[in-house]
Amino acid sequence: MMGLANTFKGMEGYYRKKLSGFTLIELITVIVILSILAVIGSGFVARTAESYQRTQTRALLINTARPSLERITRQLRVALPFSLRLTNSNSCIEFIPIVGAGNYFDPVPDQSNLANPAITIAASPYEIDSGVARFVSIGAMANAELYGGTATSRATFAGYSNGNLNLTLAQRWVRNSINKRYYLLDNPQAFCVVGSELRYYDGININDANVTLTNSFSIIARNVTAPTPFALATGSENRNVAVNILLAFASGGESVTYSQRVLIRNVP
Fold first, then answer.
1. Which element (helix H / strand E) includes 232?
2. Average pLDDT, the chain
3. What is the pLDDT of residues 218-254, one digit of tens each?
4. How far apart are CA 228 and CA 248, in angstroms?
5. Is pLDDT at 8 greater than 70 in this prediction?
6. How far apart are CA 94 and CA 90, in angstroms?
7. Pairing with 81, which of 64, 100, 145, 238 sits 20 to 30 Å away (CA)?
């Protein structure tokens, strides 16, 4: 009996020891370890979330920048090459879009042949790709010959009939086109950086020296910074006009800068 009692006492001591739980030092150690893991884990999660947010912001900026540059490029490439000019303290690139073109048959009156001004030009038919044919241009070699009330390489278009281009007034041109090309033009258009907005203007008065920024416009992109958004390298009879574009798009502490060069083929 004594042996059995001793056995029960031993088992009781064993189970009492097993059920006694953690000591205070053990609890403190566990709490400290868990706190360290929590700090490390929360920092990792925060950095991951921040990195994801930056990636999303940059992706959004890129998705805004690329279509903006593509639109500018696409529209500049249908401009009459010598119509490009910088206005509004170089914050705008203005141009006159070509809506149709063709060939004329006989030399037009110009400053070399001194023929009498003519109100009609014998020429091939044309097709309008887009826009409205408002002006005719022949042999333009500088934007000063296309803009303003005394433009010498631009005339107001009155229509086409009986194999002739009809003008509203008789015209003596500055020069003939090398390839006897005529161009039909619409009203000027422009891309401008105003404040932090990239804007598109159309229907500009061809006689104005600058773009009227208070006129109606379309916003192409916001959060744009560009001290010198546009630079222009003028062309010649055998060299293309080049437009250099430098735009920075920023948001949420992130920014992407795009530099692009657009060549406008010169076909005099």
1. strand 230-233
2. 85
3. 999 989 988 899 999 877 666 678 899 999 988 877 8
4. 11
5. no
6. 10
7. 64
Spatial contact of 199 and 147, defined as CB atoms under 8 Å apart: no
- How far CA 259 is from CA of 192, 215, 246, 249, in Å, comes to 16, 28, 5, 11
- Record the tokens describing residue 16, joined without a space: 């009492």
Question: Which of 230, 226, 233, 220 lies closest to 263, judged by CA?
Answer: 233
Sign of the Cα torsion 245, 201, 173, 105 reads positive
pTM over cut 0.90: no
Identify any residues that bridge with 243 across adjacent strands, giving them in sequence order. 232, 262
Cβ-count burial of 28 within 10 angstroms (0-12 exposed, 13-18 middle, 19+ buried)?
exposed
Tokens of 249: 């798009």
Contacts of residue 100, defined as CB under 8 A and 6 or more positions apart, other chains included, come to: 126, 127, 128, 129, 133, 183, 184
Q: What is the pLDDT of residue 4?
A: 45
Answer yes or no: are the C-beta atoms of 129 and 184 closer than 8 Å: no
Q: Of 47-56, 62-71, 105-114, 258-267, where does the model show the most confidence?
A: 105-114
User: First-to-last CA distance in the chain?
Assistant: 125
Please choose, from the candidates 251, 198, 258, 260, the residue with its C-alpha nearest in 3D space to the C-alpha of residue 55.
251
Residue type, 244: N
Structural contact between residues 224 and 251, judged by C-beta atoms closer than 8 angstroms: no
Arithmetic mean of pLDDT, 177-203 = 95
Structural domain boundaries in the chain: 29-94+190-268, 97-186
Number of neighbouring beta carbons within 10 Å of residue 20: 8
